[in-house]
Amino acid sequence: MKLFGGIEAGGTKFVCAVGTGPGDVRAEIRFPTTNPDETIGKAIEFFTRQADAEPLTALGIASFGPVDPDPASPTFGYITSTPKPGWAHTEFAGAVARALGIPVGFDTDVNGAALAEYRWGAARDLHTFLYLTIGTGLGGGGMARGALLHGLIHPEVGHMRVPRHPDDEFPGMCPFHGDCLEGMANGPAIEKRWGIKGQDLPDDHPAWTIEAHYLAMGVVNLICALSPQRVVMGGGVMDKKHLFPMIRGNVLDLLAGYVQAPAILRDIDRYIVAPGLGNQAGVLGAIALAERAATDV
Ligand code: ZN
């Protein structure tokens, strides 16, 4: 029986787990993301203890980024140019693999979550789809013909440019671009624009009209560029479930009937959906990356 470890490495917290999939997460630990030595050290300590009880076959890391996911690159498994203090150019996957002596799969947090949705969740029956997360950050991953989306590096869908909502004068808060999609529509942008956290804004607040505008613009651009068979949308902001019908309506309006797919025109409720794994997609993504690393060996 194979047993996997997974690290959901977020910018604010790490979740480390041991298991084989949904319904079989046997041990889990969470701790804040401090400096790399301490944080990665804590993760290694946890898995070393777990492996003493029952050996792990492989481990997966689904990490905040940007990261280097190219196995042929000398900096494979590194967190690269992140603005997060202390974390730029940090070797991650290699350090964990050396400490534990097992294969380590490594990808972005969003590609990990996409893989988990493909393996067990809302994208099980598909080969080309996108997974977007809208929370503290705004990012996206996914698959094309069953392969996780990589290329030059990996997609950075949060930083695409989108037209402003006509009633919105918020300057945006991306440290690199100001008013890119992430800068206008992540959780902190909602809070800064309105002076109230998104979770505390009522469903009929104008904030949601503006939020749905930006998210729908992003989704439409992605539909036009990548032709996904489904778009899965998770993250803390999407816990506001009333956003889904607003986004779907805007997407239909913006596409204006041009993309002639019944999945969109007749069945959009099943086209733009919440994650099948809920907020477990992240850590299960890390376990799915481990499963894949074990088969790749
Ligand atoms: Zn940006």
Count the E strands.
Answer: 12
Morphology: globular
Order of helices and strands: EEEHEEEHEHEEEHHHEHHEH
Radius of gyration computed on alpha carbons: 19 Å
Q: What summary fits the major beta sheet? A: 5 strands, mixed
**CATH superfamily membership of the largest domain:** ATPase, nucleotide binding domain
CATH A-level architecture of the largest domain: 2-Layer Sandwich
Please, could you describe this protein's structure?
- The protein is an alpha/beta fold and 297 residues long.
- The chain has two domains: 4-112 and 279-296, Nucleotidyltransferase, domain 5 (2-Layer Sandwich); 124-274, ATPase, nucleotide binding domain (Nucleotidyltransferase, domain 5).
- Helices cover 35% and strands 20% of the residues.
- It has nine helices and twelve strands.
- It has helices at residues 36-53, 93-100, 109-120, 181-185, 187-194, 206-226, 243-255, 262-265, 281-296; strands at 4-9, 13-21, 24-32, 58-63, 78-79, 90-91, 104-108, 129-134, 138-144, 147-148, 231-234, 272-273.
- Strands 3-2-1-4-7 form a five-stranded mixed beta sheet, sandwiched between helices.
- α1 packs parallel to α2, α3 crosses α9 (281-296) and α6 packs across α7.
- The mean pLDDT is 96.
- The structure holds zinc ion.
- The site of zinc ion has 7 residues, from α4.
Write the layout of secondary structure elements.
Layout: E1 4-9, E2 13-21, E3 24-32, H1 36-53, E4 58-63, E5 78-79, E6 90-91, H2 93-100, E7 104-108, H3 109-120, E8 129-134, E9 138-144, E10 147-148, H4 181-185, H5 187-194, H6 206-226, E11 231-234, H7 243-255, H8 262-265, E12 272-273, H9 281-296
Parallel strand pairs: 1-4, 4-7, 8-11, 11-12
Antiparallel strand pairs: 1-2, 2-3, 5-6, 8-9, 9-10
Helix pairs in contact: 1-2, 3-9, 6-7
Bound molecules: zinc ion.
The site of zinc ion has 7 residues, from helix 4.
